[in-house]
Each structure stands twice: as structure tokens, then as C-alpha cells.
Design brief:
Blueprint (H helix, E strand, L loop, with lengths): L9 E12 L2 E12 L3 E5 L6 H8 L7 E6 L2 E2 L4 H7 E4 L11 H11 L5 H11 L15 H13 L5 E5 L7 H16 L3 E6 L2 H4 L4 E6 L2 E6 L1 H8 L2 E7 L2 H8 L7 E5 L2 E6 L2 H8 L8 E6 L3 H16 L1
Parallel strand pairs: 3-8, 3-9, 6-7, 7-8
Antiparallel strand pairs: 1-2, 1-4, 4-5, 9-10, 11-13, 11-14, 12-13
Helix pairs in contact: 3-4
Length: 313
């Protein structure tokens, strides 16, 4: 077995992770590196293996195969040490609904054995703007305030790594933006953050991203690098009858994805030559206007996913 990574600039370093449940592989030979002090986005459809991977990384699950380290600790043998250094915010609000904001944080501070729990709670409430809601029951908070409370509880023991599993699902845009501002502020102070998300605008806020499909790592890198190395070609199409036109284009070999994009269509393909040939006769039709476009992250990921589905089937 390869020894656990001891590089201080690498927070997560895993190789060949595999995990099955009831005979079904959920994570398949996954290798991943996450640099310390970065915000790392974890993307993929429901069932792609994101949550299982997160649980493997923080010692809640043991891989069937593969090895690696989290914060320099072996993910197989040092799970208790990893858990003491990691804050994990699950998809569902997991604090006590019938306790107040302050009571929930007091409880979390004492569970973690903080030397000055009262001071730590006071400082964290101030840090995340919770003082005005200190006596409000957690169950009566809006989604955005529940999110802040969960983040506060995770951050109380000063973790070195924060794992966030779809933390902003169902939260309004303003609360999402404020949440991300806080995440980047923590990262600027040295915290490493791995966050799973479905939102493309959130993915674009990350220093790097990884995209999972059917338990496999499809691509990893900065958003710019992922778009560049995908080789996805895109046409923007505007004009009349786009809804019907989209259905027609979607069935043509060489066109992998047709995506509505505002008042236009994005027509994408993994092979630029095949896409050009497939669309040539349509690009001379006066009813629509065609132009080359830079693919968005969403264009790239949906196109890559279509290719992965073909390989699986």
C-alpha cells in the first residue's frame, strides 16, 4: 500500500477508491487530490457517488478497495484522527429543532470539549451574524438561517477541512451568495472546503471542480481547464421555432446535446468535425441564425455526461 501523503499542500490524496452496497458499485476506482486552502467543488447528478465519496474521505465509510489520506491521516487506519479535524455538514438539517440557536451551539461546543465553550459560541454567532436570533428555536428558522447555524456548529471546533454536502439546496439566491462569501472567507484563512453542489454558478465560485458520473471521475481541474480540455464544440442558434427545432436536432448523430439557453439554443458535440458536418445543412437555413459559441460549464458537463451514459449502456 502506498503510504498516506504527508505533503502539507495536499489536504486530500486518494487513489483507486471503490465502494459497493448490496453488490452495486457506487464509487468506482476514484482518484482525487485536493490542495490545502482551496474551495473544491464536487459535481454530479443524484446517485453519482458524491455523498458516498465524502463519507469515505472523512472516515464514516471504509473503502472496499483503494487507499489514501485526508489531512495526512490514512483513511483506513486513522479515521478517529480524521474525524477530529473535519467539519461535516450533511444535506439535511441535523441540529435540534426544539433548541434555540444558542442552545444548539452550546451543546455542540461542549460535545467537542472546547476549553471556553461560552466564548467560542459568542464569537461564532458574531462571525456568522446569528446574535439577533440567539434565542430563536432552530425549527422556526428559514432555510438560509438553518444553513448558517449548521455552518456555525461545524466551525466551532476549528476544523482544518470542511465537507459540505449540497449545503444550499432549497436556499434562496441571496442566502446562497452570502453563504459562499463566508466559505471563501474561511478558505482565505487556510481552511480547505470540499462542497458538493448542483448549481453551475456555485461551481464557478470554486478554485477547482471534479465531476462524477456513475461513480467515476469524469474530469477535474479549474473551470477554465475543464472547459478547455473537454474539446466540446458549441453553436448558438437563434430564430423561429426553436422548441420544435431542438427536438429535431437532438436525434442527429454528431450532435450530443441541445440545451435551451435563454432565447437561443446551445448545440454541442464532443467532436467539432462531426458537429460541423451534422449541422452544415441547417446552418444555411434562413429561419435560424447560427454562430460559434464558447461552451459554458453546463454545456461541457451535460455533454460529457451524455458520453458517459453511452459508454455505460
Amino acid at each position: 500500500m502506498t503510504p498516506a501523503s504527508t505533503r502539507v499542500d495536499i489536504a486530500i490524496d486518494v487513489d483507486g477508491l471503490t465502494k459497493s452496497f448490496a453488490g452495486r458499485k457506487v464509487v468506482k476506482d476514484l482518484s482525487l487530490q485536493v490542495r490545502s486552502g482551496t474551495v473544491f467543488g464536487f459535481l454530479g447528478a443524484n446517485g453519482s457517488g458524491k455523498t458516498t465519496t465524502i463519507r469515505l474521505l472523512c472516515g464514516l465509510l471504509t473503502p472496499d478497495a483503494g487507499h489514501g489520506s485526508c489531512l495526512g491521516f490514512d483513511i483506513r487506519t486513522d479515521t478517529n484522527r480524521i474525524k477530529r479535524e473535519v467539519g461535516y455538514m450533511t444535506q439535511r438539517f441535523s441540529l435540534y429543532q426544539d433548541l434555540s440557536v444558542r442552545e444548539n451551539l452550546d451543546f455542540a461546543a461542549r460535545i467537542h470539549g472546547l476549553a471556553n465553550p461560552v466564548g467560542a459560541v459568542t464569537d461564532m454567532m458574531a462571525r456568522l451574524g446569528l446574535e439577533g436570533r440567539r434565542e430563536q428555536l432552530a425549527g422556526s428558522l428559514s432555510g438560509g438561517w438553518k444553513q448558517r447555524l449548521s455552518l456555525a456548529a461545524c466551525m466551532l471546533p476549528s476544523p482544518r477541512l470542511l465537507l459540505l454536502d449540497e449545503p444550499t439546496a432549497g436556499v434562496d439566491p441571496t442566502a446562497r451568495r452570502e453563504f459562499w462569501s463566508e466559505i471563501h472567507a474561511f478558505a482565505n484563512n487556510g481552511l480547505t472546503v470540499l462542497v458538493s453542489t448542483h448549481y453551475m454558478d456555485e461551481a464557478e465560485r470554486c478554485h477547482e471542480i471534479a465531476y462524477l458520473a456513475d461513480g467515476r471521475l469524469v474530469t477535474q481541474g479549474t473551470v477554465e481547464a475543464v472547459i478547455r480540455k473537454s474539446s466540446v464544440a458549441t453553436f448558438a442558434v437563434s430564430g423561429e421555432g426553436l422548441a420544435t427545432f431542438a427536438d429535431e436536432l437532438a436525434n442527429i448523430p454528431g450532435i450530443d446535446v441541445v440545451v435551451p439557453f435563454g432565447t437561443s439554443l446551445h448545440v454541442c458535440g464532443r467532436d467539432a468535425t462531426m458537429l460541423a458536418a451534422a449541422t452544415e445543412r441547417y446552418r444555411t437555413v434562413a429561419r435560424q441564425t447560427w454562430s460559434h459559441a464558447t461552451p459554458s460549464l453546463e454545456d461541457v458537463l451535460i455533454t460529457l455526461l451524455s458520453g458517459t451514459r453511452e459508454q455505460v449502456s
